Amino acid sequence: MTCKRILLPLLLASSPLWAQERPYDASISLGYVGTTGNTETTAFNTEALLTLRHGLWTHNFKFQGLTAAKDNETTAERYFLGEKSDYAIGDDQYLFGKGDYTDDRFSGFDYQASVAGGYGRFLLRDDARTLEVFGGAGYRRDAFRDGTSEGEGILSVGENFKWKFSENSTLTQSFASDIGAELTTSRFEIGLVSTIIDRIATKIAFQARNISQVPEGNKKTDTQTSVSLVYTF
Asked: In sequence order, what are the beta bridge partners of 178?
């Protein structure tokens, strides 16, 4: 009896089924560009991703940061924090609640924050590919640098696509948009992750963010192209 009590947990922990039920996925990436000489520039971008699974719940957390400077003068500083929690109501359907917070020091906004809830569905889900779409309603608050702020109801829609097309390479793509009567914010991201060795990979990514109405003197669309080193936990 004692031997069974010792061996059973060890067998479960080493079985393929147990490995598939891992309760979390996590990664952190960091990119850097620097030049010296006639012009000195530095740019850092970072991203942290965490997925937690518990019963019928799946929680996805994302943090992104960007800072850049030219000749010791800051030219870009942006932070994004997002969370989306899904509750499965079927094999390919779920209800969700999500929240986003963006602090872009060079956008004319002090911050933009939104919350939303609704329905999502997986249109494709197999060993190599997943494609999900979701939509719902919510509320967004836009705070400006002059101390004023505005709030409005929004229609929140989006999709996520992931394709592991080889043993060492994965393509990820996502789009999200919060549509309001006063303004609409949209984010598009695409990235290619290639494993170098074990838990270390490189990521080539492109990101575009558009705000339909911005304070005078600011551009509606920001883009970012990056090459980063990724460590997966």
From this structure: 156, 185
Q: What's the Cα-to-Cα distance from 131 to each of 94, 206, 214, rounded to whole Å? A: 13, 19, 32
**pTM for the whole thing?**
0.85
Q: Is the dihedral of CA 103, 210, 186, 224 positive or negative?
A: negative
DSSP conformational letter for 222? E
Task: Identify whether the C-beta of residue 44 lies closer than 8 Å to the C-beta of residue 29.
Answer: no
**Which residue intervals of the chain are DSSP H helices?**
2-14, 16-20
Domains of the chain and CATH, by start? 23-232 (2.40.128.130)
Q: Which residue has the tokens 């002059």?
A: 146
* 38 confidence band (pLDDT: 50, 70, 90): low
SS3 59: strand
Q: How far apart are CA 65 and CA 61, in angstroms?
A: 14
Q: Rounded to whole angstroms, how far apart are CA atoms 189 and 224?
A: 9
Four-CA torsion 199, 205, 208, 209, nearest 10 degrees: 20
The Cβ of residue 22 has, within 10 Å, a number of other Cβ atoms equal to 9
| CA distances from residue 5 to 17, 54, 97 in whole angstroms, order as listed | 19, 26, 41
24-35 and 221-232 beta bridge pairing: antiparallel
Chain segment 86-129, per-residue pLDDT in tens: 999 999 999 999 999 999 888 889 999 999 999 999 999 999 99
